[in-house]
Amino acid sequence: MKATIAPFLLLIAGLALGQERCDAPSPSVFCNTTEILAYETSDCRPFQVFVTRGSDEPYPGRLGNLTREICSGIGGTDECGFENVVYPAKSTSWGTDVWCDSAGQGAVNGQAQMKAYSEKCPDSKLILLGFSQGGAVAQDILGGGGGKVFACEQDANPAMDPTSSPGANVVAAVTFGAVVRSKYQNFTVGEGADYDGQAPRTPEQLAGLLAYSDVLLDYCHYGDPMCAVGSEPADVYVHLDYFLEHNEEVKKWVVAMAKASDGTASGKPSKPTISSTSTSVAAKSTVMSTAMTSTVAVTSATATASVPGDAEAVKQVSPPYNTGAAGSLTPTAPYMPALAFLAVLWL
Ligand SMILES: *[C@@H]1O[C@H](CO)[C@@H](O)[C@H](O)[C@H]1NC(C)=O
Ligand SMILES: *[C@@H]1O[C@H](CO)[C@@H](O)[C@H](O)[C@H]1NC(C)=O
Ligand SMILES: *[C@@H]1O[C@H](CO)[C@@H](O)[C@H](O)[C@H]1NC(C)=O
Question: How far does the centroid of ligand 2 lie from the alpha carbon of residue 324, in Å?
Answer without folding.
Answer: 18
